[in-house]
Amino acid sequence: MKARGLPNVRKGRFVAATLFAGLLAGLPLAAPAATLNVLQSEAPRSMDPGDQTATFTYTVLEPLYEGLVRRNKQLQLEPALATEWSSDAAGLVWTFKLRPGVSFHDGTPFNADVVVKNFQRHLDTKRGLAASGRIRQVLASVVALDDMTVQFTLKGPYPAFLSLLTTGPALMVSPKADAAGTLSRLAVGTGPYRLVEYRSGEYVLEERFSGYWGKQGGTERIKWTWTAEQSVLNMAIQAGEVDIVNPLPPVFARMVKANTALTLHESDGAVVFFVALNLKQKPLDDVRVRQALNLATDRAALVKAIMFGFGRPANSPLSPVTPGYDASLNPYPFDPAKAKELLVRAGLPDGFSLSVAVQEPEARIAEVLQGMWAKIGVKLEVRKMESGVWSNAAFANPDQKAKEGTGAILTSWSSGVNGADMQLRPLYHTASFVPTGANLGFYSSPALDGLLDKAAATADEAARNAMYGQAQRLINEDAPHVLLYYKKDLFAAQANIQNLWTEPGGGIAVRDAVKP
Amino acid sequence: MPIYLLKKLVTLPLILLGVSLLVFVALRALPGDPARLMAGPEAPQEAVDAMRVRLGLDDPLPLQYLRFAGAALGGDLGTSIRSGRPVTVEIAERLPKTISLALVAYGIAISVGLSAGMAAAVNRNRWPDQATMLFAIAGASIANFWLALLAMNYFAVELGWLPLMGSGTWKHYIMPAITLAVMPTAVIARMTRASMIEVVGQDYIRTARAKGLPERVVMRKHALRNALVPIVTIIGLNFGSMLGGAVVTESVFNWPGLGRLLVDSVRFRDYPTVQGVTLVAVTAVVMMNFLAEMLIAAINPRIRFD
User: Fold this and answer.
1) Which residues, other chains included, contact A371 with Cβ-Cβ below 8 Å and sequence gap of 6+?
2) What is this structure's pTM?
3) Do residue B168 and residue A25 have CB atoms under 8 angstroms apart?
4) Which of A86, A431, B105, B208 has the fewest CB atoms within 10 Å of its CB?
5) ipTM of the predicted assembly exceeds 0.85
6) Span B129-147, mean pLDDT?
7) Cα angle for residues B25, B27, B33 (degrees, 5° grid)
């Protein structure tokens, strides 16, 4: 912000101007310096962390709520509302000791009964909370062993259980506020900040909670606003009107980088972009054809053209932030000559025609591919669709896809740090054929199915990751998808803002952010 | 006149009924499922179904409409899917913001449009006329979305004179109000010019001039008053398109009004909120047209409606 002196005007006129300003504004107050201003790309969907699944809502709620465990700056799990925990050998029964002396912002004490109520509201199918799905898939029951000890019993082994406890539905809400039915607009958690005001069309204002049990390193207040206009996100940070914008559209990343007053924060993201090939359609049933498409794809050029360089070529069906990701794989370096040769061997010296269903905002990716694949004789027909229409085409069964001539589907998938199973099972397992799961191209490999099932039931991390290593190689070899790239998570902040970090998937943690 | 007033009052509910039905059907014809949007793309089908039941979207459509219309008659527009709050509360919070912005913008449009149009008519085919007409054509054709971004980049980012977005102080009004005013200003200026030129050629103006009245009095009292009827009509009719402009302007400037609420709600397929905002906007437009007609009758007593 530039410093400006008072205008040199006669006193009377200045008073009149002030009065006028006051009349129009009601309260002409400048935001105090101890407020951290954050502008995001979408409005929060609820003040109840268990009734939303949006990254940018989670970011707003994270300073207000805590779970039993949380992630620190190094993204490692650390104790939050639980002080210690253990599980049985099979990984089915988990016991947590709770932190004593914690109370909610409304004064309700935190104890085992609170934890049980918090999970039971998700197990109760009648509630229909937006984020209950995953809890219900994993959790069988939860009981209080004593006032400060709870025990969870899982339906089956779930290696990412602790990670699940950091997600929205596992953040502890005040049972009193939940019973009153006011949580959707009045957040009541145990976090270092409490909600001051939520004006649904304008802002969310949070301030430090004086009764917090732990250390509070952040600013006095945090104010969240939002805009759907991409260029406004950029202008707001450039004008110094806000301290942080999240996410920063990649088209503006170089501009932010060039501005010394700003810092561009980039980190590996969890989103994988790919083209799912319909294996029930000729000639895509031939693995050589699928490999040829992979070899004909210049991923580095794609990252440059679409992400302005802020992405990474995909070398695996897992994203770089997913546990078990193998960075050493490089199955398909750009090699159009070899691709052409494979097509000749598959009996397609003149290439073939293929259609791809793509949502409008992602159509440019398909258009770039069209140019690349034309060089090996593949004529790609790009079918741009509105998201609802696309959804119908992408999740259609084999017969309908044959009727509509859908050869491929361009899309993305993200499971974040929550484990390889949540990335691979819905996309590649035989049991996940659409519409049940998201195996969009009907890829089926008994060897892979067996590996995925075995890995999901393996509690030992090293052994599990070894199996996922095998799974990645197997999928690369069979090439049911043309893997494209991993998006980087970008956000921009004023250079003086310290102690921020990104959570894979695009969320940012601001609870300890310092604004000098 | 009272009969006409009565007729108008009877047609308003009919218009609202028709519009509500139209919006209700059109919204549900859009692809996209609010339950799926609320539960997230990776939620299991079972969670989506539970959400649908909770939102009352599992009932047959005619039943849903009857429930909505019945409640609306009692002043209850339902509960917002997105925020969980009554739609009437959401609207009441935003309405003053939109009204204040619209009033400032319309104030600018009427004063600038009238003066520019008169100046153009008086100086026909000279530079003030040409400048006004150039502005009128440009103003009516430039997308206010683009104009807003241009102004923001220059006055807020480059110069740092004005706040980029949001509301709160009088400075926050300047850019959104002017952006919103550009289109109606252009339309009003054109109409004023055309209408004045027509009136100035009339015999009674020649008479007024002949009896030695100062030109200022001739223009204001004799010419403008008679020229006003089509101008007031166009002012009244343009209110609707200005509300349309407010949808864009409010979204770009983060103005917490009804327009932004509408955009956010459409994105989330928040059916009750979209329906509620549309009903309020339609009522405002109908009332505004009605007001314009009343005003016309007051300006020119020869006009009879009944």
Assistant:
1) none
2) 0.82
3) yes
4) A86
5) no
6) 87
7) 120
